Amino acid sequence: MRRIVINVLRQMEHVDYSQAKDGAEGMEHLALVCSDLIVIAGHHSDMSSLEFVRAIRGTARTQHVRVLMISTNVTDLDILEASRAGVDGYVSAPLTA
Question: Residue 71 class from Cβ within 10 Å (0-12 exposed, 13-18 middle, 19+ buried)?
Answer without folding.
Answer: buried
